[in-house]
Amino acid sequence: MSFKTLKEHLHFSGRTLFAEHESSATKTTMKFSCFLPAPIEQIDSAIIWLSGLTCNEENFITKAGAQRALSNTKTMIICPDTSPRGLNLEGEDESYDFGTGAGFYLNATKAPYDSNYNMYDYIQKDLVSLLNESFGVDKISISGHSMGGHGALILGLRNPELFQSISAFSPIVNPIKAPWGQKAFNGYLGDDSNSWKNYDATELITSGNTHPRPILIEQGLGDEFLEKELLTQNIMSAAKDSDQEIMLNEREGFDHSYYFISTFIEDHIKYHLSYLQA
Amino acid sequence: MSFKTLKEHLHFSGRTLFAEHESSATKTTMKFSCFLPAPIEQIDSAIIWLSGLTCNEENFITKAGAQRALSNTKTMIICPDTSPRGLNLEGEDESYDFGTGAGFYLNATKAPYDSNYNMYDYIQKDLVSLLNESFGVDKISISGHSMGGHGALILGLRNPELFQSISAFSPIVNPIKAPWGQKAFNGYLGDDSNSWKNYDATELITSGNTHPRPILIEQGLGDEFLEKELLTQNIMSAAKDSDQEIMLNEREGFDHSYYFISTFIEDHIKYHLSYLQA
Fold first, then answer.
1. Per-residue pLDDT for A1 more than 80?
2. What's the fold here for domain B4-276?
3. What's the predicted TM-score (pTM) here?
4. What is the DSSP secondary-structure string of A163-210?
């Protein structure tokens, strides 16, 4: 499990770099970016950041300002692409919310996507192996935005032993009840909606999945997708009837953009560092 | 001197917004971005940021992380576009280093650019008036990157009463001796190189222009343009024989990118705030 560096820049106390590696899960070359705040042999932990619809490995690392908050620590952040690319599958490039840039962090079961659109396994197997083997990291936390917030929640809730802590910005918490989620799950998983529940954070909590640490969620109340797509209150209701603690910060007037993320990213980094550097 | 807001986002303690206004100097509609860390009636000072080749009003405001450093102050930052756009002049869109996105912060005297490519006047007249009249700002400092660092230096050195302090990242300090500068000055000003000296920071210092505050320059030593285009040592030599103090921070291994800018932007913001909030 090695990687190829495509470009790198000195940045704060370390390096921001762009790279690619081979994925068994997607059977493609996958790109990622990362920030290493210290020489690689000193790095001991990582935050995986999962981006939202239309993003690739560049958006977060150039816009969110996370590197400053990680500077002079031993914790890296790694930002994978949001789907396999360049497969030329039917329908792959027709819309912003399905196919390329919209992998939804699940393992597809419906043709023609089932061979490659396995972003769930890509993250929890290939990317975790890369962190273990190429970066010497064994403590990992997970976060993300929107579709990536959904990804962080389901990956964290289903693998509490693998991820030290979970946070999310503006996550799609109940995709089986949201148009984005319904379209994607139908296209990747088919119309048996029972199979959808494994990839729905609210359903996972309802059916007893929990993570031992409180989940930190940041949500702007001026978010244009809040009522139709994100459905934040659904996971809060589910958590109330479960053992899962969720810390929800509702931010008056903030929207769905990177301006929201960059305002509060330092809080989330510090939250994860409190477990990763404990 | 009013402006039209195109979009805005809550951000840190205030708002990042994108807007446009009419310019007498360029006879076009000019776009800009800005960050207002407080309600507009509380803003009392501004930093003008001038971007480099190929940039527009978006690059700095989305990538540099300056807003965090200005949060909870009364100082805004404003980031104009780097040239007029959409004029369809001959040669305007043929290269990345001339015409669109490459105004070089001078007043063109050569046809067909002389009617509109007046970025020097745009900054020191139109943008300053906008700050005075629409934002209620009277104390202004100036900074920029690469071509924009050149702009900050020449505007500041020629207008020491207008700008409280000057800083620059990776500036083109002696454009009349650099290929980028020679191409641009020839195209905008014609081949009488005597007229070029008014837009060359090293020449301005040599001929006695000074600013009462020390100029802060940040320069990466891994900058791929240092030796051919930026020529940092030329302004240092000129300053040594003049009354102009320059504080040059040379940073081992850092390159010409926004990763360099974002690493050190907080230092520059604090430098300007020390004069603007004095």
1. no
2. Rossmann fold (3.40.50)
3. 0.96
4. -S-BEEES----GGGSHHHHHHHHHHH-S-GGGGGGG-HHHHHHTT--
